Amino acid sequence: MTKPFVAAVLAAAALLSCAKTQDASGSAAKAQATTNVTATDGRLSIWLTADDRLTPFEGRANLQVWNVRLHFKNASTAPLRILVPDDRNRGPTSSLYLRSSDSNFGGSVPEWPRHGPMYTEQDFYLLAPGEERSFAQPVFPSPRLPSGKTFDVTWRYEVTMNAFPGGIGTLQPSHELFGGKPLPDLWNGKLETKPLALQMP
């Protein structure tokens, strides 16, 4: 991984931490969406969609972004809870891995929290059987990418805990969630999508 690209990823993460995520609407709705193959374990299905062109981020013409969406579907016959933190805390639970077609650069979005993720009860979503839900995840292009260059985006989603008793010692100790009791309907596992190709204009 090259230092300039790492700097670009960190800059993108900083922008995400201070700006509200834009839903794919307005001018973004005029772009054609592309998608990749669904990854599933029979209980949860996930896949990516993305605009096939750059669009202004929050209406700022000088700041272009790919509007990527993270899609979840309860593929089981019972209610299923998913954990999807806000943009600042998604890594490492939900991470997009970027790799150029010539392997000259790579990185991940968003930046992983330096002192661990801080979850809230609002980060958990209960899906009925067959229900789908999606979340926006802006991807800022690397300034090193020349026109016409293609890179692949792979999404990895992983949850390994089903109870959140709090008290984990970081600069900001984690809080107890749901009384610290196990969540039997919380999905646990690891899924990774096939790469989705995006091309610089």
UniProtKB/TrEMBL annotation:
Keywords: Signal. Residues 1-19 form the signal peptide. It comes from the Bacteria. This is Lipoprotein. It comes from Labilithrix luteola.
